[in-house]
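Narrative summary of target 7.
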Amino acid sequence: MKRWVVICCAMAFGVVSLSADAIDKKSRRKNPKKIERLSCKLGTEDRQARIAVEVINGSVKSFAYYSKWKPRTCSISVERDDAYSKWHDNGHLTTVSTDQGSFLIENRRKDVHFIFRDVDRAFYCGMEPGKIRGSLTVTRGKGACVLKGLMDADKDQ
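Modeled conformation, tokenized:
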């Protein structure tokens, strides 16, 4: 009798496990992740700006900005759910706050637009104290960026 109960329980657990796997596979097929990777570059070898952006299901997941102003380089990398940034979504707008400044991201149909707000240049670039302010736009399907103010020569930028 005990043997029969053990066999029935084992079969029941197996059926539950198989049906849970089948449901999980079905939901993955219905709601696959849409991953978009965008990047662009503007400038020459000695003076350039570039960005890489990862968008998952319509939300920006991470971005990495790099600029070179020979001999200096800036490198900013921010990822959603990391320990160093706070992300707040409001429709197609995302605000990212860090201890070193903030970013406003607008995920539009044709492009992703970034506004850099008082980002600490000394922290990210190893340059003299100052703030990085300006905007960068990466257009879907194009390799060139549109910059405004990010790499201006003014010390107060």
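The mean pLDDT is 83.
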